[in-house]
Amino acid sequence: MLDKYFDVIVNVSLFYGIERTGIANMLNCLKPRVGIYKKGDYIVTSGQTYENVGVVLKGTATVSKESISGNRIVMTLLKERDIFGEIVAFSSMATWPATVQAQEACEILFLPRSKIVGDCDKMCSWHRIFIQNFLRVISERAIVLNKKVEYLTIKSIRGKICSFLLDHYNKSGSKEIELALNRNELADFLNVSRPSMSREMSKMKEEGVIDFHLSTFRIIDLQALKAMSEL
Amino acid sequence: MLDKYFDVIVNVSLFYGIERTGIANMLNCLKPRVGIYKKGDYIVTSGQTYENVGVVLKGTATVSKESISGNRIVMTLLKERDIFGEIVAFSSMATWPATVQAQEACEILFLPRSKIVGDCDKMCSWHRIFIQNFLRVISERAIVLNKKVEYLTIKSIRGKICSFLLDHYNKSGSKEIELALNRNELADFLNVSRPSMSREMSKMKEEGVIDFHLSTFRIIDLQALKAMSEL
DNA sequence: CCTATTCTGTATCTCCAGATACCGATTTTG
DNA sequence: CAAAATCGGTATCTGGAGATACAGAATAGG
């Protein structure tokens, strides 16, 4: 029944490192449900009883949260192979904290939370890997959030830019940085306004700390960059 | 050998819901190590190879991070029964991202990461609970971080205060709120300066939206509070 | 119970960053 | 290839929040 989705499922991070036959056995034991949605359909709604971890098999969906005053804010965009609800699964929350809605026609795999840790008696070897994967996915989500908190905590725009560039430098080891984000997205990520960010970047270029053209950045004065990274 | 710590261990969140005998068996299988530290000793240092999840059995310790420019910033204070390193355990990180140092004489339990998911063949029932606990602890850490990101993303001080109070209201259901934080801690948490926060709170009091005296707050105009919660 | 210390509210001054508008550069698309 | 749409840099103006200083309230400690 899940055969047609197999090529997608095999590449879902929760199943990394498990062979096709293992996954097949596992799905047998997890007894997942597949939901099919039309564009605009609600996949889960905020406040609804939480029961399953979701996996997008096909299509795209938005994760949104109703703010206190009533406006909906889109928080994430989900695409094929993305997971949602994985953090709620094992917390003590009983309901969905956000709404997931089909942005285009969607097919979703639901893995029952109760089955994941396994009442599968023999706790087969692939099940162990599955749980490790689960732990890894959640942990990495936490690490990303932690990093985000670090950026947001920096007060000045300059400090944010410097930290951002330094992190890239530390990861790649190269003073030449190619960003995947455009200015709007970067400004959004750092939680500042685009013109203010541009202004600050231009100043830094003038001062000879960095150079850039469109999405290509180059660190010129590494020392200065470090010194300014936490103003 | 671990007998003297048992009353502490029983109350560690990772072991919730497991009977004493279960915990004893489990510790047998996890083969943990206990480390004893004097005040000021380094328990783990940033960059060191990651191997164990830590549990504070006795004493207090600080978690600190070296910023890029070299100053150390204390991020958390650990006390008896607190866990550290639980998020790194299952990520793909190979080294400690922060330093943990004994603030007073400390005794620490180290649970080897490799044993946690269990090469314990029969995956005993308490082991399953242990892993569920682990998942819960990490998930809840992620949820807290997520909440923190929400607060930090709000631009205005007023918005932050409103959201903060509303969250408390939603949790307790009461318009009378007793805070555990003092002004400095609250300002720190919201990442604003204390005088600026006080100024804003006073304005809101004047406007008849809230009332407060020291750590006792009262919501007067709930509608107004909601309306302002995301300026 | 009185002193010392910490905590909280308030005023002033300065300035950083947001909002807005606009233009040129770049990319997309028909 | 031309027209349209998106994207990026810059200028101006303004407001909100930070820094600092200080005084009164609350709490702790002897």
Task: Identify the notable features of this structure and list them briefly.
DNA-binding, elongated, kinase (chains A, B), homodimer, alpha+beta, 11 strands, 231 residues, Jelly Rolls, Arc Repressor Mutant, subunit A
Describe the structure.
The structure is a homodimer of 231-residue chains. By secondary structure, the first copy, chain A, is an alpha+beta fold. Chain A has two domains: 3-148, Jelly Rolls (Sandwich), CATH 2.60.120.10; 154-228, Orthogonal Bundle (Arc Repressor Mutant, subunit A). Chain A is built from eight helices and eleven strands. Chain A has helices at residues 6-9, 20-30, 113-116, 125-153, 157-172, 183-190, 194-206, 222-228; strands at 33-37, 42-44, 52-58, 61-66, 72-78, 83-84, 99-102, 106-112, 176-178, 210-213, 216-219. In chain A, a hairpin with a 2-residue loop joins β10 and β11 (216-219). The radius of gyration of chain A is 21 Å and the shape is elongated. The model of chain A has no long low-confidence stretch (mean pLDDT 91). The structure holds a DNA duplex (30 and 30 nucleotides).
Low-confidence stretches of chain A: none
What does the largest sheet of chain A look like? Answer: 4 strands, antiparallel
Domains of chain A, number: 2
Order of helices and strands of chain A: HHEEEEEEEEHHHEHHEEH
Question: Radius of gyration of chain A in whole Å, from Cα?
Answer: 21 Å
CATH class of the largest domain in chain A: Mainly Beta
CATH homologous superfamily descriptor of the largest domain in chain A: Jelly Rolls
Nearest-integer average pLDDT of chain A: 91
